[in-house]
Amino acid sequence: MRFLLIEDDMALADCVRDILEGNEHRVDYCGTGEEGIELAEMGGHNLIILDIGLPGIPGTEVIKKLRNLNKTVPILVLSGRTQLESKLEALNCGADDFMIKPFHRDELLARIYALVRRSEGLIRQKLQIGNMEIDLKHQEVIGPDGPLDLTRKEYEIFELLCLRNGHPVTKTIFLDRLYGGMNEPDAKILDVFICNLRKKLAQANNGEHCIKTVWGRGYALRLPETPATEQFAAGE
Ligand code: CA
Question: Ligand 1 mean position to 66 CA, how many Å?
Fold first, then answer.
């Protein structure tokens, strides 16, 4: 997953980044609200972790601006302010959760995962696709013969497809998620990733392909119980 961290306390920011990157997540970081809004506007984040006491515009203004821009990305506030008023103000502005510093790393991760799951419309940590299970917490795909040997990028591609639940995912979204706008390779690399991923998934899924090409729109998960013609009837 990919997170945006807006925090001016460098030591704390490093601590949060270590926790998230240690769990194989990507973190975009900035130290001011102005930069945070710019980065958030670009999108592609599963969640924003936001400090309230920032130089320049405060965290509460960041929340208001993002919500006014119709950004629905979940926002977790990390604040040293212990008063109930601060918590209520942040939540009333549109924050989804509020944690007081100092925090325990396990609680931080648990809250982040809960918020992301809720925002993705998921209440489970595991998804079942055909006879494969996607473990979102441990980031692995388990087939009938055990965990599949997927590369990090292959897993991220498959997870994104599963979370989109049959809706097409464009190459731009894939690249944004996989590379975060940094040193992005040519989009053709995705065809290679998808080709390898398809082979590995088919081996674990009785030879059946579960990723389909949606011409002009990217790729989508083929939902096992739904005829292909019905999958995109609702569109987006
Ligand atoms: Ca601060």
Answer: 19
Residue 110: which H helix or E strand, with range?
helix 105-119
Query: What is the rounded average pLDDT of the residues 29-47?
Result: 92
- At 27 the three-state DSSP class reads strand
Give distance in angstroms: CA of 8 to centre of ligand 1. 5
H helices, E strands: number in the chain: 9, 11
Which letter, b or e, does each residue of 19-47 get, where b requires 16 or more Cβ atoms within 10 Å of its Cβ?
Answer: bbeeeebbbbbbbbbbbbbebbeeebbbb
Say how many Å lie between the CA of residue 115 and the centre of ligand 1.
22
Alpha carbons within 13 A on the beta-carbon side of 75: 29
Asked if pLDDT for residue 233 goes beyond 70, the answer is no
Q: How far does the centroid of ligand 1 lie from the alpha carbon of residue 53, in Å?
A: 4
**CA 15 / ligand 1 centre spacing (Å):** 14
CA 188 to chain centre: 23
Ligand 1 centroid to 136 CA: how many Å?
A: 31
Decide the pairing of beta strands 211-214 and 218-221.
antiparallel
Q: What is the pLDDT of residue 187?
A: 85
Strands (E) in the chain, as ranges, are 2-6, 26-30, 47-51, 75-79, 97-100, 126-129, 132-135, 140-143, 146-147, 211-214, 218-221
Winning range, highest mean pLDDT, from 45-59, 105-119, 167-181: 45-59
Q: Find the distance separating the first CA and the last CA of the chain, reported in whole Å.
A: 22
Ligand 1 centre distance from Cα of residue 52 (Å): 6
